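Side project, low priority. Logging it here so it doesn't get lost.
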Amino acid sequence: MNFNLFLTIIIALIILFSIILYNGLRILLTVEKDKSMVEYELKATILKIPIFTRTGTNGNDDKTENDDTEDSADDLDETLDEDKGLKEKYEEIKPIINGLIKSKEELKDYLNKLLKTIDLKKLEGNLVIGLGNHTTTVKIASWIWSIGAILNSTNPSLLTVEPKFTEEIIDFEGKLELKINLLFLLAYSMILLTEKNIRELIKEIIG
């Protein structure tokens, strides 16, 4: 094969791959609720081609009193085992924690750049939130209202929040659509890997 032709093919493939990455990954989550049943659909597409789709239904399962008793006993045994090995587990993850602390500036910068790769295309729905404490519920609902106001002013979004003061509940029904720029995500990730602290952190994580 002619070298110039081979080089042209390689360059064309790189450009095509870059265009695909730049176009990004679209993620669409739809949640619909009918009484206690929740139906959801999660779909991911590239160039409008579905690469992942998952649908499901969640409902409330009833438990008998005997089941609750057996579960409580099992939970107690598991808690005791976890307490015994807590110190050993901490010693195992201590180097990772130290690595995270050491790399906090690099990770903070990476997360800021990561947010720039995410484009909120659509956010609409209703969030019902009740935390059992009136003050906390109002505070969290206010934060979400503030975020929703910003989103509604800059994106095609319609997010409403309904606080509940009589029960503990977090419930959402609506639609969320995101676009992730994979080209920038890949570039930022490669830059992150050039940091010495990050490479040392990865070594600690993979052992």
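Brief comment: Confidence is low (pLDDT under 50) at residues 60-70.
Revisit when time allows.
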